[in-house]
Structure formats: C-alpha cells, structure tokens
Amino acid sequence: MALLVIKRDACTGCGLCIQVCPFGALALDSENIITVSEACTGCGACVPECPTGALSLPEVEKKESSHLDIYQGVWVWVEQFNGRASSISWEMIGEGKRLAEKRGTILTACVLGHEAEPIAREAIAYGADRVFLVDDPTLEVYRTDPYARCLVELVKKYKPEIFLLGASTRGRDLAGAVATYLYTGLTADCTGLEIEEGSNLLLQIRPAFGGNIMATIKCENYRPQMATVRHHVFEMPVPDQTRQGQIIREQPVMLEEQIATRVLDLMVEKNEVNIADAKIIVSGGRGLKGPEGFTIIHELADVLGGAVGASRAAVDAGWISYAHQVGQTGRTVRPDLYIACGISGAIQHQAGMRTSKIIVAINKDPEAPIFQIADYGIVGDLFTVVPALTRALKKRLNK
Amino acid sequence: MQAIVCIKQVPDTTEVKIDPERGTLIREGVPSIINPFDTYAIEEALRWKEKLGGKVTVITMGPPQAISALKEAVAMGADEAILLSDPAFAGADTWATAYTLAVAIRKIGSFDLIFCGRQAIDGDTGQVGPGVATQLQINQLTYVCRISSLDLEQKRIEVERLVEEGKEVVQSTLPCLITVVKDINQPRYPTILGIRRSQKVQIPTWTSKDLEVDPKLIGLNGSPTRVVKVETPPARAGKCQIMQADSVEQQAELLAEKLLAEKIIV
Ligand SMILES: Cc1cc2nc3c(=O)[nH]c(=O)nc-3n(C[C@H](O)[C@H](O)[C@H](O)COP(=O)(O)OP(=O)(O)OC[C@H]3O[C@@H](n4cnc5c(N)ncnc54)[C@H](O)[C@@H]3O)c2cc1C
Ligand SMILES: Nc1ncnc2c1ncn2[C@@H]1O[C@H](COP(=O)(O)O)[C@@H](O)[C@H]1O
Predict the structure, then answer these.
(1) Taking the model in full, what pTM does it have?
(2) Would the CB atoms of A173 and B221 count as touching at under 8 Å?
(3) Residue among A150, A183, A111 at smallest CA distance from A258
(4) Nearest ligand, CA of residue B126?
(5) Which residues of chain A have a pLDDT value below 70?
(6) What Å distances lie between residue A64 and A68, A219, A221, CA to CA?
(7) Predicted local confidence at residue A155, as pLDDT
(8) Are B178 and B166 in contact (CB under 8 A)?
(9) Is the ipTM here above 0.90?
(10) Is A263 close to B165, i.e. CB distance below 8 A?
(11) Is A194 helix (H, G, I), strand (E, B) or coil?
C-alpha cells in the first residue's frame, strides 16, 4: 500500500532518492524509472531529494486549525501503585516542566487514586504548578475504564495542549484508550521530545523497526498531542519541598457498579530484581554458554554492588528470568556503569542501554557492534577476563 | 467461543541489516513473517476453541501480500480469515488502523473475545489493541500471560496480567479484548493437513466499499499523527578504548584503573 506518487515523465533515473530511502523501498525499473515497493511507509524522506520534483505524497486534507489555540498547558499523568508514585512519572514531570517553560505555560499533574493527596503534594515538589486530584475508592488500583474516562473528562474540560504518560504497562494501556476516545494522535515510547521553532508543535522522536530507525512524529491538527515516554530516558528532577502549587479536586466519572473489571490479586515476584533503578549493571549474553556462566557475572556484580542484567538471547535460552532482560522488549536502563559480557550489542539490546553513562564491553569478537557504543573494551574470552576483572577490582576496593 | 484474532505481517527485524555507507536499512531478502507476538494470540485462541468449541477468525489490514500471513494462521488451525486491503487504508497510524479493524469486526458480527499481540515488532507501539477495544466499547485486558478461566455462559473471564510489580489477577466480563505476551503459551507449527487446507481456503478481501467506514477516518487522512522525518540513529559519541596488554591479568588491571578513575565505583 505504497503512498508515494511518482511522476514517470519527470523522473530522470538519477537514483538520488534510492540512497536516502531508509526502507530500501525504491528501485529503478527496466526503463530506468523509479518504482516503489510495499516497503514504502510514506515517510517522505525521498521527496525533497528529487531534483526534478518527480516524487510526492498525496495531499492531506487541510483541517481547520484555529480552534486548536484554546488548548493550552502541558499535562503529565502520575502513575501510582499501592499509594506510591512510580519514578517514571517524576522523570516525566521533569521533562514536562522543560516543555512547559518553552511554551511559556504551566505544568499540570493528574493524580488518580485513593487517599492520594500525599502524591499530589509530591508532584508539586517535583515541578507541577497545578494538580488535578481525583480521589476515590474506585481508583485505588489501576483499571483501564475508570481511569481512562476520568482523564477523558478532564481533557474535555480543561483542554491541554500536550499530554505525557509513562510507557509502563499501565501507561501504555491507558494512553491507548484515552487517545482513541479523544480522537487524537498518540506516539508510543518516545525517547526525545522537542518543541518545533515557529510552529510550536511537539516533535516526538522514537525508535521504530526494532530500533533500526528513529522517527520524528507530529500531531498537527488534533489536541492534545499525546505521547508515552520510556523509563530512564529523561533525568529525574530533584524535588523541592518548598515549592508551591495548586491542588484541584475533581470527581470520578464511573460508579463501582458500572465498572466491569475487578482486580482480585497481585502476585508480587519474589526476590524481585530491579535493574531499572540500579547504578551499576553487569549483563551477560549468549557468550556465557549456559546458566552456570552467570556465576562469574554475579561475582563481578557483587564486588561492584551492582545488579545483573541479560540479553534476550540469554533469557530466551532460559538461563535467567525475564525480569533481567535489557532492551527493546525488556527494561530500559540508564546506569552509571553498564558492563556487557558476551553480548554482541544487537540494535534491540542497545535500545535498552545506550544511554548508560559508561559502557564497558567484554567480547572475544573485535567486530561485535557493542564495541561501537562502548567507552572501554577488552577483546578476549570472558571466562578468563571477567574473573580477572573481579579480582583486580576486589584488590583495589579492599574487599 | 467466537474468537477474532488481529494479526499483522511484519518484516523480520532481526534479519534487517544496516548499509554502513548509506545508513539505510537493507531490506532485500528480509522475510515477511507473522508478528511474533501475534502467533501467541493465534495459539491461545485455538486452545480455547479446542476446549470450548466455536470458531476462530483471523483478520489483518495490509497489502495484498499479507494474505500469506492469513494462510499461515489457517494452516495453524484458524477457521476463517479476512483480509482488509485497499489503497485508501494506506498510511494509517494506530488510530486509523484500530478504527478500520473495529469496523470490520462489527461486520463480522458477534464475538466473545478478540486477541491481539502485545505489540508489533515494526511499529512497536502496542496501541492498536487498546484502540480497537475502545472503538468497540468493550473491556481491554493487556499484557495477559495466562487465561485462568473462561466462562461463556456467565460471560466471565479471569486472567493474569504481567505488570511491573509481578502478576495481577483480573476478572472481567465478556466480550473483551486481550493482548498477549509470549509467556502465555508455545505456538504450534502448522500441520500438513492445515497447510493443505490453507492452500484451498477462500480468503475474502474487504475494501473500504465493503465496510461502513467514514472515508475521513481511514488511511493517511484519518491519521492524527504524521511521520515527518526518519533517520538511522546516530552512533554514540564515545570512542572505545580497547585495553591492550600482554596478559588478561594486565588488561583487567588496566580496566579496573580506568573504572576507578571514573569515580563511579565506591
Ligand atoms: C522484536 C525484537 C525485540 C528484541 N528485544 C530484545 C531485547 O529487549 N533485548 C535483547 O538483548 N535483545 C532483543 N532482541 C534480540 C536481539 O536481536 C539479539 O538477538 C540479542 O540481543 C542477542 O543476544 P546476545 O548478544 O546475548 O547474543 P549473540 O548475538 O549471539 O552474541 C553473543 C556474543 O558473545 C560473544 N562471545 C561468545 N563467547 C564468548 C566468550 N567466551 N568470551 C567473550 N565473548 C564471547 C560473541 O562474540 C558474540 O558477540 C530482540 C529482537 C527482536 C526481533
Ligand atoms: N494492520 C493490522 N492488522 C491487524 N492487526 C493489527 C494490525 N496492526 C496491529 N495489529 C494488532 O495490534 C497489535 C499491536 O500492534 P501495534 O499497536 O502496531 O504495536 C498487534 O500485535 C496485532 O495484534
């Protein structure tokens, strides 16, 4: 379902567009004229490259946009569980504050829960100027329907310009429903947000295609501009307990008997591994050859006071549990130090760890892509290198 | 049990290589597969059909060649398949995709459950499932790792959902939409019999004319979001210092020095 329109008589067969197509969707046919395959996503990268204007995308109907000006302010949904806010929400408050300042507007936090006023106060300390607090027993545990309807009503009433949610399981679940109700755009799993000069639109940058490409996405004609943001992409702001803000109480929109779902239980994982918050992570991959390989990884992590991570290959092989997986389909981490042992550094793995402050790679293959993003590396057999490093550090740390 | 499974055909992103000179994706020879998460959705629907009777219908919105994904699902055991294909659907973002799928599901008629994968590996959004549920005004249960009970008479379902803190046990009414994670099952391979059936099965193609869609809400025109730029991610600035020494022991000593100098380890 390629979208690209090709004016055959204008094409000179120069091939410039082929070089810029990120999807390899363009080729020259037997008459030396450009053809497009189904791989085309209509991204438009080729259009400005064509010196003769032979390429175009179909005109999109212009929408009346003056009514959009009444949408103002930046909003963040504050996720809470068991009366505690999740750290991803504070990261979003920090980033939301930055965007609000750029737009010359205020930052609003939406806190839904039961007896959640302390969280509303915390939100102000982290940077919110205003908090909508919906406090009700029906909102104690997260459920899609009562949460989504509540946010939809708030958006309809107060009309924000930008609305950010964390890309956690709850955030993705909620954002998908809210954006659909509101008929507005939603960009998933952003790793960068900017305000475009001139248009003042939100530029939403996200990896797609398993991290192989970065796409910039805009939502021009609909409001609010909604995005979910990955954990540990933005810095955690420092709370200031003296900050002042306004707390506005709002009413829930659903009664318990109208809600068709019940949360019966939560089975908390025993000896839960929280690699997401670790300052130091030592990770192992397929190079460990088996579950026993993780012994030396644990030993190094212990000396460093760090946590143990893993590549998907190691998790899929059943050597370690999914909770340890770093990457696109695992956790995003941003430690001060990430040591990758026997991990090739596939783009999907990098997607979860490339923003680490210092990256160390230990791999016997000097060509492994992990070395391209590492700060320090040892090319060698991890079964000798890792224990040697553990010993060297132990000696220096007097352990 | 009437089940509808939404599947997507995607390029196998593990096979994608980057052209180092041009920085573009090399897609030649990259096979198209059923989105891996969707195979778990198909499997789960089939297992419950085998237990409770009924029918499994798979649908996809995509180009004509997406029919091969539907055939594969039939070879696994799906009863019916429908392709939604029309140039007017092209350029759809998750909103317009969910809208089109929801209209098609209404046309299919009554159902107890809709199954989706947790996300597609090309777009990676996980937004289409919640979108479809909201369009149809039914409950959604995302990231499901186990369906512990399904009672068609009482119209009740109980599932375990994989959330950050562990597993959440949730009960809901039917009909509802669930998105599945890979812990839920081990998808089967197509059988010889299934493959034979898939070669003969008639798969109808529904275009925008066959569906009661609002033309303003489909394809590029119906999509609130626009991709305005696509690029390959920039390489990380850090130049890798490789520890060079005569022995592993010395290499390790060197690295330990460097790490301590970074003042991260305390
Ligand atoms: C949709 C999708 C999502 C994905 N999500 C993720 C994800 O979240 N996280 C993730 O990690 N992957 C993910 N992947 C998989 C990813 O593409 C790679 O397959 C995976 O990361 C490879 O893991 P690995 O580096 O451990 O294994 P390999 O690529 O096999 O690399 C093993 C490395 O170990 C080295 N080695 C072997 N023996 C030794 C030794 N004795 N000493 C030193 N070095 C040695 C080898 O040189 C090699 O570089 C995903 C893939 C897809 C398609
Ligand atoms: N074009 C499509 N046709 C049918 N189902 C789809 C389509 N796109 C997405 N889905 C379903 O929605 C899920 C999530 O996809 P996504 O939101 O793109 O990550 C997939 O696992 C599929 O079950």
Answers:
(1) 0.85
(2) no
(3) A150
(4) 2
(5) 1-2, 59-66, 210-211, 269-273, 399
(6) 9, 14, 8
(7) 97
(8) no
(9) no
(10) no
(11) strand
